[in-house]
Amino acid sequence: MKDKIVLITGADGGIGRETTKGIARKGARIIMACINKEEALPVCEEIKRDTGNNDIEIMEIDLSRLDSVRHFADDFSKKFDHLDVLINNAGIFTMERKETADGFELTMGINYFGPFLLTNLLLPLLKKSHSARIVNVSSNAFMQGKINIDDINMKKGFQGFKAYSASKYAVVLFTRELAERLKGSNVTVNAVHPGHVATNIWTFEKGYMAYVSKILKRFMATPEEGAKTSIYVATSEEVEGISGEYFEKCSIKD
Question: Fewest CB atoms within 10 Å of the CB: 139, 149, 234, 238?
Fold first, then answer.
């Protein structure tokens, strides 16, 4: 991975932090795409100290705002002439229905629409790499996902898990369709399930879910364990040329 350019969204927390750390140890040049540069800076400095890799920098992006995604892609394209690995890691889970600045339901907006736009805007740079990879972090929750095109923003009967599973289903569908469109190119794209990981995405401040999440986290995987599959799919020679697949525990899952 030495000298390869790797972009990771949500790189300052949970699985993203451990993914960044693991790939940094392999010598890659990493761009941490984070919503708040000031908050991400201590994480970046910690990763540099832990890995000995100083070739890491932060760029701000807000995946809930399509104008921010476009601005980021424009700045990135001016700064770099190619991209070797894109890891769409950032994601949210919320029990309350909210909307993005563009009017999308927030979960679908951040987990799918933002990464969808970012990926397509960066495809020209990925195609300039000798061999590029896109890694989309999904979840096995996609198996319960259903997408109602007539109510894509879930204005009726919103439920947190329903929105989350639908967004992860969209990620898997996007991964498989993009793989078809990229056949014959130098770019591969795969989806990964990190496992059920104890990160802040499952932290709730009040109510029944606050109590339940505290108990469940005791049985969840650590962020370090959750990052293993993303790191594997992004860097392993064994994955070279494989595209359109869904990985779990560093293996293709049917």
Answer: 149
Which pLDDT does position 143 carry in this prediction? Answer: 83
Q: Which two tokens stand for residue 171?
A: 């990620």
Let me know: does 212 contact 218? Beta carbons within 8 Å: no
The predicted-structure confidence for 162-191, as pLDDT tens digits, reads as follows 999 999 999 999 999 999 999 999 999 999
Give per-residue pLDDT as tens, 65-124.
999 999 999 999 999 999 999 999 999 999 899 999 999 999 999 999 999 999 999 999
DSSP string for 85-139: EEEE------SS--B-TTS-BHHHIIIIIHHHHHHHHHHHHHTTSSSEEEEEE--
Q: Which helix (H) or strand (E) holds 168?
A: helix 160-181
Residues whose CB falls within 8 Å of the CB of residue 115, separated by 6 or more in sequence, listed in order: 9, 63, 88, 90, 136, 171
Strand partners, 34: 60
- Tally of residues, the chain: 254
- 110, 64, 133, 226: CA torsion to nearest 10: -40
Res 147: pLDDT: 92
- The answer to whether residue 164 is catalytic is yes
The distance of Cα 26 from the centroid of its chain, to the nearest Å, equals: 19
The Cα 20–Cα 223 span in angstroms is: 11
User: What does pTM read for this prediction?
Assistant: 0.89
Q: Considering 112, 164, 169, 232, which one is annotated as catalytic?
A: 164
Measured in degrees and rounded to the nearest 5, phi and psi for residue 45 equal -65, -35
